[in-house]
Amino acid sequence: MLKGYCACYLQKLASPWLVLSLDLTLVAITFFVAHLIQFNFTLNFDINLFFKTIPFILIISCISFLSTRSFKCVIRYTGLKDVITLFKAVILILAISIIGVFLNRVINFTASLSIPPALIIIHALLNLVVLSSYRLFFKTIYGHLKDKPLLAKHILIYGIGDSALKVYNALKNNTEQHFSIEAFIADGVVKKGLKIEGLPVITKDKITSHFILKKSITEIFVAHSNRYNSELLKLADNLPYVNIKNYRTPFKKAWVNTEIVAQQVKPIQIEDVLGRPPIEIDNPKILDEFKDQIVLVTGAAGSIGSELVNRLSNFDLKHLILIDQAESPLYNVQQLLYNNGKKNFTVIVADIRDAKGLDDIFSSHKPTIIFHAAAYKHVGLMEKSPYEAIKINVNGTKLLANAAIRYQVKKFVLVSTDKAVNPTSVMGATKRMAEMYISCLQKVSATKFITTRFGNVLGSNGSVFQLFQKQIVRGSHITLTHPEITRYFMTISEASQLMFEAATMGKGGEIFLFDMGASVKIFDLAKKMIKLSGLRYPEDIDINIIGLRPGEKLFEEVLANEENTIATYHKKILISKTRRLDYNHVKQEIEDICTANILNRGDIVQRMKALIPEYKSNNSQFEKYDKKVAELKPKAIDY
Fold it and tell me: Structure pTM?
């Protein structure tokens, strides 16, 4: 308490005018010391002349300090910029002094200005050293006094570049929390004895459990602004019994006045548990593809739809049309566009199941490119409501695609899912039916129908990440359906990039997908999220296994059994080479199912299974239909 009181007292005393008074006092003292140095540390100089000269020195010093505002700095946060300002003030004192002495020699104004030039230079050097040193001394004392040492958090900074220094300064200047920074962690090999700000630089292999316990490390701050680092995850995995919080800094454009404030240091982004580097695509042909086009986005208020809208709003479009039946989320997207200065767009609350409404939209706006992101996607809910799943995912797609043909749309890009591959759920089967329907239309229309298949999208509404994050924040246990369940993951940014690539590259009939690397075990993902949140498994947050939900798979696939892939110009983008269908039969059967769905819900799922022979229900009430359709001859021809 005494140390905290002393720090507060010192802070109140360090007012700008007190700093100015102290600066002037030190200038007078250094002027005396300069005389001692000039005269070989003796008093063999004119004391009377010294006292006559002091007022002149103090006046020009005061003018210099006021001009440069060097006394306005907050001493306890003294940095390089403050030292540079002091340097300017000292140079100004030096310049005015030399000019004053020179003029006095010409006009012989007063004997009090008869100062040797060497003495002026010595005085300037002393001023620079003393004025900057006492500021840094005050800053150091304040840093030691402001908090109890026992309350300080012992941390490491991951990185040794500019970002690392900015994080270091932010943490040292944090007025709310005291951090004891023990070392910087380097990615690669470093020279022995290397130091930054007087702190050692160590390599990752030095970060052992013994080191962490010895130094009482509680947190690691990641100093990379936007960089994937799998080594960091390995580091965390190797310290299972140590409570470490990992942080990353924001993008450089988010720094305030080229500096980073302590409050800007945010928890590490959840994308870092992808298990692979994010896929980046820079295709200049995309901008040309969308130039002067009228683009329509369905599901524009959803996670993927809103990301598409956000990116498309920066393209040179003729017009952008947003469609969604969710009024409030769509309004939020509209306001975001307005706030970003966008005007060339139209927002329409509409239902893709309404054929008349779609016809009105197409006849009024005449879109040339369509991104169809509207869909029901929750497996468990759709397993209980196949009627609704078919209405939106199949019939809605059918109506939209038919309208695209009537109004001669150039390209139609469908958002699909890896759950459509060998589906085990109603949701996955309806998305596969949507893929099949537009494949049929591709054979009879000028519109280019293209499909994009996604894995689980990070950050999307209802994603496992959001669920786990909420459960961790609440401090409750994490719920997991099965300890061996795995999934492929991609970011919303990757999803939107794939759709733009598909629209640019697609010739019609393709299914585009990303090489998403190895699938991620959700149990391991949950443990990583617990650890990266600064908690321990199972001491702080446990994981409860609740069993597979109806229709849920243990693992997802990106390709069906009869499919293989074709490479593209980008090694991470693949085209699925799908089986051939009896297009006339498939198209008619899908249309019949959509009609029967309205009149009779009893055998709809059975008819879906007959149409999609690879559709085998899992942990679902609809498993009873699998045997009934097993002997039916599939209406498909292997490729």
Answer: 0.62
What class, spelled out in words, does domain 285-455+490-515+561-627 have in CATH? alpha beta
What's the Cα-to-Cα distance from 625 to each of 392, 429, 505, 548, rounded to whole Å? 23, 14, 40, 20
Q: Is 199 helix (H, G, I), strand (E, B) or coil?
A: strand
Single out the residue of 242, 266, 270, 265 nearest to residue 534, CA to CA.
242
Neighbours of 634 (CB within 10 A): 15
Across 602-608, average pLDDT: 86
* Alpha carbons 391 and 52: distance in angstroms, whole number: 97
- Rounded-to-5 percentages of helix, strand, coil across the chain: 50, 15, 35
Domain ranges of the chain: 2-145, 149-268, 285-455+490-515+561-627
Amino acid identity for residue 69 in this structure: R
Q: Per CATH, is 149-268 categorized as 3.40.1190.20?
A: no
Q: What is the pLDDT of residues 415-429, one digit of tens each?
A: 999 899 999 999 999
Helix (H) or strand (E) holding 83, with range, is helix 80-107
Residue 373, C-beta contacts closer than 8 angstroms, at least 6 positions apart: 297, 298, 299, 300, 302, 304, 305, 308, 415
Which helix (H) or strand (E) covers residue 355, if one does? helix 355-365
What is 570-626 written as a DSSP string? STTEEEEEPPEE-HHHHHHHHHHHHHHHHH--TTHHHHHHHH-TT----SSGGGHHH
For residue 240, name the pLDDT band (cuts at 50, 70, 90). low
Bond preceding residue 16 cis, omega within 30 of 0: no
DSSP H helical ranges for 407-491: 426-442, 464-474
Between CA 555 and CA 342 the distance in angstroms is: 42
φ, ψ for residue 584, nearest 5 deg? -65, -45
End-to-end CA distance of the chain: 79
Who's near 215: CB < 8 A, 6+ residues apart?
154, 182, 183
Rounded average pLDDT over 420-439: 95
Question: CB-based burial of residue 413 (10 Å sphere; 0-12 exposed, 13-18 middle, 19+ buried)?
Answer: buried
pLDDT digits (tens, 9 = 90+) for 360-400: 999 999 999 999 999 999 999 999 999 999 999 999 999 99
The whole-number pLDDT of residue 210 equals 81
Burial of 426 (0-12, 13-18, 19+ CB in 10 A): buried
AA letter at 564: N
**Nearest 5 degrees, angle CA 246-CA 218-CA 7?**
110
How confident is the prediction for the chain on average, in pLDDT?
Answer: 82
